[in-house]
Design brief:
single chain; 554 residues; alpha+beta; 10-stranded mixed β-sheet
């Protein structure tokens, strides 16, 4: 907890150019951009970083092909360019993947029409990805035998991209970049409201962990609270041109349905796109699109039934998927930006996920509405421009604030890993070589991990059964990833809670050792806290047994 405590002290005692409220993708990318350009940045989140919408995505980085039908070509081109930019600058994390879309009899468009659309989509994306293909029902079945092609009239295959790792991990790496460039970012710190006086924002903050309160001073206040932007604007008395509508989406994580590395896309019974997405040795299926009055959501039996019913209609499985096959779930809201003057009853299914930056120059206040993972680099650059217009000096305006380290750094890591025969230590259950995974997750910091393994080979051993996590990663997490509660580690810094069943985790001796490494004397408390109050992803399951004692070592 040393990193968190030192950042807390700075929040209370330093003056900042910018305070960002919210550590989702919008806040994280804004913090990384501003800190990378030399601003004095603070960021707080009342929960963990990426603790809401940003950890409930489909893990897809896509150009918005769904907006082709509404002819919003400018938005599609912008998102395609953003997707291409992410693929180029995060080649280990954001990878091109093929989408195979099956069209059934009676659908509103013929396959040929959609095929033309995918070519236009490809052209709007500057031909950056592989070209589309038109598929016959016979070829669909030959390519993906699990697809029920009996009612198919054809299909198309085209390319977009996806996050090889977890979405929340991708967000945290922006937080990590901001910290590395001098920002003070702290999770579990809540804004109680803010007042602008004498050219300075005075934000009352509360440490959620111990209840203590303090004031954060900044020249500019950026509201990046995701679905709760409107609520925080009420606290600060901000009137904006935009507001949010909310759409709930869920995904189910089930055992691996196909080992092909492509996304299977269908049109669900309600007419919207429905995906089967690879997730290592698991499969993610969904999503739903349900209008909500507020951002607090939970998964329901109707949500689960909808996803299971749609997937069972479209695949030929040995036996239909049931609730017993669900390992975990994702359930979150999409905050959709609309003009405040617009009718809230409009057709939200036609709304895009575009972001909107609303600025009050009089009070040096910025609100970020909407947004998605694909557009994160644009958000960071746009906020940097607006902050500069509000009078904040950016000492290094042209410095690049995103992307993986230079190729020479990666080459040095891979050469050292090869000399150590690191990949020979890859656990048999892993989905990829150890060198590739460590580089993707930790980049230059992975060089230090190689040294730990060289000195003590046990640091390269698998720690938690059913995962790919090795011991030295726990040391890294404890030292520099601000893990405050067990769910921060299991669900957000890693995706362990998504791919390993709740009961299996509860009985894991490796997890108990991980708790001791992460929390020391508080290990039992954090272990009990997690299993006594299951997170949303497992609440649909039957009542959990009482947690077993952890036996903290002295």
């Amino acid at each position: 907890m040393k990193l968190r405590n030192s950042n807390l002290d700075r929040l209370a005692n330093d003056d900042f150019d910018v305070l960002i409220i919210g550590g989702g993708i919008n806040g994280a990318s804004a913090a990384a951009a501003l800190a990378g350009k030399g601003a004095r940045v603070a960021l707080i989140d009342r929960g963990d970083f990426a603790g809401s919408t940003s950890m409930h995505s489909s893990n897809l980085v896509w150009g918005g092909i769904k907006y082709m039908e509404s002819q919003d070509f400018a938005l599609v081109r912008k998102l395609c360019k953003s997707r291409n930019h992410l693929i180029k600058h995060y080649p280990s994390t954001v990878e091109e993947i093929r989408f195979l879309t099956t069209i059934t009899r009676g659908f509103r468009h013929r396959p040929g029409y959609l095929y033309i659309g995918t070519w236009l989509y490809w052209l709007l994306g500057n031909g950056f990805t592989r070209i589309p293909q038109l598929l016959s029902p016979k070829r669909i079945k030959a390519t993906e035998p699990i697809i029920d092609a009996s009612q198919a009239v054809g299909g198309v295959e085209y390319s977009d991209a996806y996050l090889h790792d977890n979405d929340a991990r991708f967000v945290f790496n922006f937080i990590r970049h901001a910290l590395d460039h001098g920002a003070s970012a702290v999770n579990y710190v809540e804004s109680l409201g803010a007042e602008y006086r004498d050219g300075t924002w005075h934000t009352q903050a509360r440490n959620v962990i111990d209840g203590s309160t303090f004031t954060i001073r900044s020249k500019v206040l950026v509201n990046a609270a995701g679905p709760w932007v409107d609520q925080h604007n009420e606290l600060t008395g901000q009137k904006t041109q935009y507001q949010h509508l909310y759409s709930k989406g869920i995904h189910l994580i089930v055992p691996q349905l196909t080992d092909s590395q492509r996304v299977l896309a269908f049109f669900a019974d309600d007419g919207r796109l429905f995906f089967v997405i690879p997730m290592g040795n698991r499969t993610c299926i969904g999503t739903t699109d349900t209008y909500m009055e507020h951002p607090e959501v939970e998964i329901t039996q109707d949500d689960i039934d909808f996803v299971l019913d749609n997937i069972n209609k479209r695949l030929t499985l040995d036996k239909p998927l049931t609730a017993d096959d669900i390992i975990s779930t994702r359930c979150g809201v999409r905050p959709l930006a609309v003009k405040a003057s617009q009718d809230s009853e409009r057709d939200f299914l036609q709304l895009s996920r575009k972001h909107v930056v609303d600025i009050n120059p009089v009070s040096a206040h910025i609100s970020i509405f909407g947004g998605k993972l694909t557009d994160c680099l644009n958000v960071g650059d746009e906020i940097s421009r607006e902050i500069k217009c509000l009078g904040v000096d950016l000492p290094f305006p042209d410095d690049k604030w995103y992307g993986e380290p230079p190729a020479a750094v990666k080459q040095a890591f891979m050469q050292q890993a090869a000399r150590m025969r690191l990949d020979d230590m890859t656990p048999a259950t892993s989905s990829e070589p150890l060198s590739k995974r460590l580089w993707r997750r930790y980049a230059a910091q992975a060089l230090d991990m190689l040294e730990q393994i060289r000195v003590d080979p046990r640091q390269g051993e698998l720690l938690i059964e059913g995962t790919e996590y090795i011991r030295c990663e726990l040391r890294q997490a404890h030292r520099s990833e601000m893990i405050t509660r067990l769910d921060d580690f299991l669900r957000r810094r890693a995706k362990i809670a998504l791919v390993v069943g709740h009961e299996e985790l509860r009985k894991s001796e490796g997890l108990k050792e991980a708790c001791r490494m992460l929390f020391g004397d508080q290990a039992q408390q954090r272990f009990d806290e997690y299993f006594a109050n299951p997170p949303d992803s497992v609440r649909f399951t039957s009542q959990q047994p009482s947690p077993e004692p952890l036996h903290v070592s002295s």
